[in-house]
Amino acid sequence: MNTLVDPARKSDTPPRPQPTPSKSARRRNRLPRMALYALLIAGALEALVPVLWVISGSLQSGKQLYEGTDPIPRPFEWGNFATAWNEGGLSQYLPNSLLYTSAAVLGILVISSLAGYALARIEFPGRGAVVGAILVIMIIPLPASFIAQYKLLITLGLANTRIGYILVLIAGGLPISILIMRGFFAGQPKALEEAAAIDGANLFTTFWRVMLPLAKPGLVAVGVIQAMHAWNEYLMGLVLFNDSSLMPVQRGLTNFISAETPQQQILLAASLIAVLPIVVFYAVAQRHIISGLSAGALK
């Protein structure tokens, strides 16, 4: 016969007291955490000190910078930034980079999202071979393809043009971007697409209104990664452009690299101007990067 237990009597039983850890045990548990904090602080300082040195050097005179005796500018040479802007041609190169980066990122997002969705959801012969080909393309260094790309642009009449350079940037950023977006779409439940099909949505409507909004973290991650790549690209621009007025912002930094008349303080000021837009963009979107890569690329 089953014995009924009175809930009131059961609740009256006092909980068994938990043993209190000793001071030595708490101290031993605290040491690994303190070591981890110390390691993180050291890593942060290692990354922060060079940035502070660049900021300090950009505000010093050339004599003080070369002497290297005082990290604090005395006085603050704010005119270094005006010199970098005017003599380095940044007023012309910076808008070029803004155009190239914006157009390249937009093209990569459109193509990679469509291709990633097709590789994740559409069954077609050779789908695995396409994914394998993308992985092989990622192994090939980009400079190894410069000659082939340059010859193709000459054939198409796009050499020394903005459109040709943007197409090269898009082609270089597509492989990794497609794989990231494919991982995002593959990780979404198929029930969402089945429900959309029941409501009468076609394939493109399902992609545009249902699946693409769910892939926003992946789009942001791809946008940030490719924006940084496009902004810092210089070698292909040097190969492709004959007209100096079409060069990206990295070209302006080379105006202050000379063995005869070194202007390191102006170069540092120009570097800060060149990196500022991409730093602002990264600061705004950086919280999506980790979630985007971990949710998409690793699936």
Can you characterise this structure?
The chain has 299 residues and is an all-alpha fold. The chain has a domain at 91-296: MetI-like (MetI-like fold, Orthogonal Bundle). Helix content is 73%, strand content 0%. It has helices at residues 7-12, 23-58, 62-67, 79-87, 90-121, 127-139, 146-156, 162-186, 190-198, 203-214, 216-232, 235-240, 250-253, 264-285, 287-296. It is flat. The two termini are 54 Å apart.
Mean pLDDT: 82
CATH architecture descriptor of the domain at 91-296 = Orthogonal Bundle
CATH overall fold name of the domain at 91-296: MetI-like fold
Net shape: flat
Number of strands: 0
Order of helices and strands: HHHHHHHHHHHHHHH
- Main beta sheet: strand number and arrangement? none
Given the helix and strand composition, which structural class is it?
Answer: mainly alpha
* End-to-end Cα distance: 54 Å
Number of helices: 15
* Helix content class: over 70%
Concise summary:
This protein has 299 residues and is mainly alpha-helical. Helix content is 73%, strand content 0%.
Layout: helices, strands, pairs:
Blueprint: H1 7-12, H2 23-58, H3 62-67, H4 79-87, H5 90-121, H6 127-139, H7 146-156, H8 162-186, H9 190-198, H10 203-214, H11 216-232, H12 235-240, H13 250-253, H14 264-285, H15 287-296
Helix pairs in contact: 2-14, 4-14, 5-8, 5-11, 6-8, 8-11, 8-15, 9-10, 11-14, 11-15
Tags for this model:
299 residues; mainly alpha; MetI-like fold; 15 helices; 73% helix
